[in-house]
Amino acid sequence: VEITVETPSKKYPVFIGNSALTELSNHLQQRNYTKLLVITDEKVGELHLNTLKDVLPKNDDVFFFQVPTGEKAKQFSVYEQCLTFALENGLDRKSCIIAFGGGAVGDLAGFTAATYMRGIPFIQVPTTILAHDSAVGGKTGINHPLGKNMIGSFHQPEAVFYYTTFLKTLPAHEIRSGFAEAVKHSLIADRDFYYYLLENIQDLQQVDEEKLNYILKKGIEIKAAVVAEDERESGLRAILNFGHTLGHVIEATAGYGKVTHGEAVMTGMVYALYLSEEVLGLQFDIETFKKWIEKLGYQSQLPKDFNFELGLAGMKRDKKSYANKPRFVLLEDIGKPVIQEISEDVLRSVFSSFSIN
Ligand code: NAD
Ligand code: ZN
Questions:
Q1: CA proximity to 300, closest of 241, 243, 255
Q2: Which fold has domain 2-169?
Q3: 104 CB within 6 A, ligand 1
Q4: Of all protein residues, whose CA lies closest to atom 35 belonging to ligand 1?
Q5: Is the pLDDT of residue 326 over 90?
Q6: C or N: which end of the chain has fewer Cβ atoms within 10 Å?
Q7: Is the CB of 130 inside a 6 Å radius of any atom of ligand 1?
Q8: Does position 256 have pLDDT exceeding 70, yes or no?
Q9: CATH topology of 2-169 equal to that of 172-356?
Q10: Cα→Cα distances 79→76, 214, 269, 286, Å
């Protein structure tokens, strides 16, 4: 399967499925980069690096750098190590960085590529479901001790090679994390896709490869269409934040690692759906949605120790809120997102019915 992402700054292909590694090998032969630097994390490196190595050139111009797993990859110190390693090994402007891992490795490796010698090419080889979201669109970056993703740049990859066999080793909570973003893509853009998911996915451990590839393809197409319209998030791209305003707060409150990003966003989407019903009269069967996601292992309710004041303070701090007013992505209908500021009163009353439900 091949999708073309077309943004103002670059047009590039996304290959999904069994042929993706062959396509990677072809790409490398055609482009003839001077050197390659593969950045991966310890876990992906251990599980899958040998498979990747099989399709890379076997010579002295290919280098490998392993970073810690998860958000620990997106630290200044690790970023600096990547730059140092690239300099020590003589990467130049015609070299290419290969991001081999999930969204964390993708963001780090992409940011390294974006800033090394003012920007060199990079390639995404995603290994998580979540990366169907993060590997497309060109946002790259690292964390600051004072905030996640606070340092970054827009830098589109040369191509994305999504070899979905890598996904077979994902633990359940990482599958849930990535699948939540696919659900998000369906809700903001494509009613049929949402009902397809609702009908076809009853157990996230038992999704056959054909269905998985279809879901990733649909998710990427939706993300690509949004990014094509608004590469640098001056407007439309903000709809991708559906479920994220509260989701980010849940994620931060639970402590990184306890609940994954997508799991927190899923709970955030339930809140955004209730808000949409209240504010915009959305017609949507929220009860069915909640039963479905619970069966898939998500929490449709807030963590016990979570209260409104905590939530509100966090939502006001959200990068996408202005002047301390929480801005929400709501749905007028499935596939019809709108962005709106919501008053504290409404946030509070919907919040209380949401938490006791
Ligand atoms: P991740 O890269 O941290 O991967 C999650 C965990 O799964 C890690 O422990 C990793 O080692 C492990 N893993 C990866 N592939 C595996 C495999 N095939 N088998 C077994 N384990 C595997 O995170 P993620 O969930 O993929 O992405 C989250 C990150 O993406 C966050 O840092 C977030 O900020 C970022 N993100 C970026 C964008 C963007 O547009 N740039 C969008 C969404 C999220
Ligand atoms: Zn997200």
A1: 243
A2: Rossmann fold (3.40.50)
A3: yes
A4: 103
A5: no
A6: C
A7: yes
A8: no
A9: no
A10: 5, 34, 32, 42
Residue 357, pLDDT above cutoff 60? no
Pair of tokens at residue 60? 């002295």
**Which two three-digit tokens encode residue 340?**
């709106």
Distance 286 CA to ligand 1 centre (A): 28
How many CB atoms are located within 10 Å of the residue 328 CB? 28
ipTM surpassing 0.90: yes
Distance (Å) from CA 101 to ligand 1 centroid: 7
To the nearest whole number, what is the mean pLDDT of the chain? 94
Q: Give CA–CA dist 328/341, Å, rounded.
A: 6
Which residue lies with its CA nearest to atom 30 of ligand 1? 103
224 Cβ inside 6 Å of ligand 1: no
Q: Is the CB of 91 under 6 A from ligand 1?
A: no
Provide CATH code, domain 172-356.
1.20.1090.10
Q: Is 51 in the pocket of ligand 1 (CB under 6 A)?
A: no
Question: Distance between CA atoms of 344 and 332, rounded to whole angstroms?
Answer: 20
Write the pLDDT tens digit of every residue in 15-46.
999 999 999 999 999 999 999 999 999 999 99
Quick one: 313 exposed, middle or buried, by C-beta within 10 A (0-12, 13-18, 19+)? exposed
**Best mutation site among 49, 130, 240 for ligand 1 pocket (most ligand atoms within 8 Å of CB):** 130
